[in-house]
């Protein structure tokens, strides 16, 4: 016999996008002490816009980066990291951007800015950030290994897949802590508890926030359905990779709490046990490096 939680989950009907969007915006604004939804720094928003602009060029991106000395230093540090194998270190920002490529530079810029948002998420800031970065790295590595989605589309959805949780902590820390505790200690699914409390879960909230920040709609759909990839429509492949990346983050010790969410069977991604072990090692190494570079 199915549990009451499972029955309730099966009976749940996803709301229309427009209704969900309005509900999430109004609820988070009402709960937030400031009355405002979480927002990305201006440089990150500009980078997301450039990532979608077919006419974007190195000079445009450099002008965005140069608005923040700290961001310029991070981009140079990443470009000159050992992992990229550059023999002659980049001394100018333009050289660093050319080394990384426009899309990857945008990823780094957004990640560096997003870290500031996570730092405001109370005592769980480090845990939330480490998990989000691990899923971003894992999703990118899975995209590279499975070739199911374009590699350049994998990092940012991974980075933002749980930004709804960050919003919950920023808007209503006490309620978010209760949900985390009940989910960890009581054995209930956190998404089920979130829908009971707010009327939507963290994946739905994250998708709407990411859309507001300028992420492409298909990537937002993958965020919304990363716990239920079969519902994601055209974004199903990316949602499947996000789901698997979530599991890999727990596997390398970067989970949120102790209980990992249900994950897609590795066989669906045609990954054997040896493949998974090798992937986990690469993800661990890449996460450690990027955490230090973005630190």
Summarize the structure.
The chain has 295 residues and is mainly alpha-helical. It has helices at 4-11, 17-31, 42-51, 58-65, 69-79, 93-100, 102-118, 125-146, 155-160, 163-171, 173-185, 190-198, 202-213, 217-224, 236-251, 273-294. It starts with a helix and ends with a helix.
Topology:
Layout: H1 4-11, H2 17-31, H3 42-51, H4 58-65, H5 69-79, H6 93-100, H7 102-118, H8 125-146, H9 155-160, H10 163-171, H11 173-185, H12 190-198, H13 202-213, H14 217-224, H15 236-251, H16 273-294
Helix pairs in contact: 2-13, 3-4, 3-7, 4-6, 5-6, 5-7, 8-15, 8-16, 10-11, 10-13, 11-12, 13-14, 14-15
What does this structure look like?
The chain is an all-alpha fold. It has a single domain, classed as Orthogonal Bundle (Hypothetical protein af1432), CATH 1.10.3210. It is 66% helix and 0% strand. Helix 10 crosses helix 11 (173-185). The longest helix is centred in the middle third of the chain and has 22 residues, at 125-146. The protein is globular and about 55 Å long. Residues 1-10 have low confidence and may be disordered.
């Amino acid at each position: 016999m199915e549990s009451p939680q499972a029955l309730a989950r099966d009976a749940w009907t996803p709301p229309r996008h427009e209704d969900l969007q309005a509900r999430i915006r109004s609820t988070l604004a009402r709960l937030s002490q400031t009355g405002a939804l979480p927002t990305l720094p201006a440089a990150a928003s500009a980078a997301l816009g450039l990532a979608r602009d077919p006419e974007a060029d190195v000079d445009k991106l450099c002008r965005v980066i140069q608005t923040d000395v700290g961001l310029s230093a991070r981009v140079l540090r990443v470009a000159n990291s050992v992992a990229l194998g550059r023999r002659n270190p980049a001394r100018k920002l333009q050289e660093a951007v050319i080394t990384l490529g426009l899309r990857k530079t945008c990823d780094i810029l957004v990640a560096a800015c997003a870290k500031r948002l996570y730092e405001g998420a109370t005592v769980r800031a480090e845990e939330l950030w480490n998990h989000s970065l691990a899923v971003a790295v894992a999703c990118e590595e899975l995209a590279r290994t499975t070739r199911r989605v374009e590699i350049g589309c994998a990092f940012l959805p991974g980075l933002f897949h749980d930004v709804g949780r960050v919003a919950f902590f920023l808007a209503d820390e006490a309620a978010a802590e209760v949900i985390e505790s009940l989910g960890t200690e009581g054995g209930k699914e956190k998404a089920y508890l979130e829908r009971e409390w707010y009327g939507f879960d963290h994946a739905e909230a994250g998708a709407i926030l990411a859309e507001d920040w300028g992420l492409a709609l298909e990537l937002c759909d993958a965020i919304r359905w990363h716990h239920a990839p079969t519902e994601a429509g055209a974004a199903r492949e990316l949602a499947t990779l996000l789901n698997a990346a979530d599991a890999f983050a727990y596997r390398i010790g970067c989970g949120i709490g102790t209980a990992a969410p249900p994950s897609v069977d590795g066989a669906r991604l045609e990954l054997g046990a040896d493949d998974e072990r090798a992937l986990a090692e690469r993800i661990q190494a890449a996460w450690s490096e990027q955490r230090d570079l973005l630190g």
